[in-house]
Design goal:
CATH superfamily of the largest domain: Response regulator
Shape: elongated
Largest sheet: 6 strands, parallel
Number of strands: 12
Structural class: alpha/beta
Strand content: 15-25%
Number of domains: 2
Radius of gyration: 20 Å
Distance between the termini: 29 Å
Number of helices: 8
Strand order of the largest sheet: 3-2-1-4-5-12
Length: 266
């Protein structure tokens, strides 16, 4: 750890709303005593830019990330990636252990199942594809683009696929419509989507958070089945569920306190 008068370097593995909020809060709370860099995977064409420095692209595995931590003199790392970003989270755990850099996981709390929800929980997308024929043929997929090929064999189904960016190539689905949008989404629009596209079943990842939860409420209102893909287990280590707790962890690790201006604003 560098001396107390120098700015500490915080690396945030981002791409989520929580990561952007954390970057802004860390700069507001600690002022010039902390330098913040947010790393984005670069999978979307026009990502929202958080405050502080931003780097885009992969590190080259755990070894590459460990080298980056050393070269950039990173004092602390907070993994605020998507709950399903298991690969980069595992790499961060290995890299921080190798480089002796304190690591925290900021993991949003999961959705709580309502008594009226008709969820079928599955371990992965292959499990989701397996149960769909029993549940409905008009399917709303809200699982991203990377693994849509898993559903390619369901030729009798029609899919509505929501994506952030237009796909660069045709989707590997026999019948589908594409809906572009970036969260947060509101309940009224989610209701209209279900009705307009005559959706019979929703497929979602158990990502949690409020930005995409309205689709679950809309499905519940229409008594529609939901295929819910369980989260992968996070790597071992310290975890918190909100930005405030992450700031407390950061303050303890860096021996810093929040700035007087930030305290007065609160």
């Amino acid at each position: 750890m560098r001396d107390r008068d120098a700015a500490a370097h915080l690396l945030i593995l981002g791409g989520t709303a929580e990561a952007a909020s954390l970057a802004a809060a860390a700069l507001a709370c600690f002022g010039e005593s902390v330098s913040v860099t947010t790393s984005l995977a670069g999978r979307t064409e026009h990502p929202a830019t958080p405050p502080g420095r931003v780097r885009i692209g992969g590190f080259g595995g755990a070894e590459g990330l460990a080298s980056y931590l050393a070269a950039e003199r990173v004092d602390c790392l907070i993994d605020a990636t998507h709950p399903f970003a298991a690969q980069i989270s595992a790499q961060a755990a290995a890299a921080c252990a190798s480089a002796a850099v304190p690591r925290l996981v900021l993991l949003r709390p999961p959705w709580k199942r309502h008594p009226l929800d008709r969820w079928t929980e599955v371990a992965d997308l292959a499990g989701a594809a397996k149960v769909l024929p029993q549940l409905g043929r008009r399917v709303w997929l809200t699982v991203g683009q990377r693994e849509l090929g898993i559903f390619a064999g369901l030729a009798q189904h029609h899919f509505l696929v929501r994506l952030i960016d237009p796909p660069a190539a045709p989707l590997p689905l026999a019948s589908c419509d594409i809906l572009l949008g970036r969260g947060p989404f509101n309940l009224a629009e989610e209701r209209r989507i279900l009705e307009r596209h005559a959706i019979e079943v929703l497929v979602a990842k158990a990502s949690g958070g409020g930005a995409t939860e309205p689709k679950l409420v809309a499905a519940r209102e229409r008594d529609l089945p939901v295929v819910m893909v369980r989260r992968p287990p996070p790597p071992p280590g310290e975890r918190v569920e909100d930005v405030t707790a992450a700031l407390d962890w950061l303050a303890a690790r860096l021996g810093r306190t929040t700035s007087r201006a930030s305290e007065e604003e609160e």
